[in-house]
Amino acid sequence: MKHYSKNIISIFSFSLFISLYIVSPHYASAYYIHFSDATYTNGSHTETFPLHCGDIVQLPPGGTITFLVSATSDIMNYNELCIQSLPEGAAFQCVSGPGPTVSSVFTWTPSGPFSGSVVFVATPEFQDCSLYFDWPLPVELSSFTYSINGNDVILNWQTSSEINNSVFVIERADIVSGNIQNWIQAGSVRGNGTVSTLSYYAFTDKGLKSGLYQFRLKQIDYNGNFEYYYLNNNVQIGEPVRFEVSQNYPNPFNPTTIINYNLTNADHVSLKVYNSSGTEVKTIVDEFKNAGYYSVIFDGKNLASGIYYYKLLSKNFISVKKMILLK
Q1: Could you tell me which CATH number the domain at 244-325 has?
Q2: Across the chain, how many H-helices and E-strands are there?
Q3: pLDDT for 129-151, tens place per residue?
């Protein structure tokens, strides 16, 4: 651990702001609240550092801080030490008894970023020691937008700073009758670790069917902690404006390839594969389809290497394309 000044202790990159105030100044010279050295533990990593009222301490998220809090009086035979507004995940035992000093252990494992005060109160002198904890979010997202290209959704986001950022997981959900269905992972983009400059990210979710979608980013740090960032608007993929069958990809292929096609209106559709002699070798689709974007996988594992043709046929549309199976 590196100490930058008497009142600043730096451990990684998050802030714990501590301030001391005396409600009854008359007792200030005879009454004390003080801390033992604090211990911060995160997995196998442990740091020990001095802690006093008035210090500014920086801590990373995802670990546990522990220290002993004591109240000592030079003029009273009875003493009590308690805490106000115990934060979620913290443990502290209010103690009292005769003698000049009473002590209790403060242990806290925050479940996520937290900002707020924790006030230790010693009576009957009513001396308070106020600690202000502030863990900023590990990633400051400055924008999160989208655009549409056909049935592809292009997501763009920008961060102004990142701390310990491992990865962004892109998640997508269908919206049906106004309700969000199950979230699924659409992909991921590696984070930039710890940076204080602008970072730009992009991800394209390809080949979506017509419908309404919601997107979110799951930002995960190297300790496994995560935060969600939601796109402000739902994404609408409309119906195609023209009949189209795309070139299969990959091409050449072995043994599978993907064929995409678009329907501008509902119709009975057939998609069949023929060998170079014109003999049908496989029917991929032969059914009624609504207007929309479609994607199918053709598996040629039982076919010999060579040139094949696939034909999309509907009432008012026909298209034939060539593909190569290369084993």
Answers
A1: 2.60.40.1930
A2: 0, 28
A3: 888 777 666 788 999 999 998 88
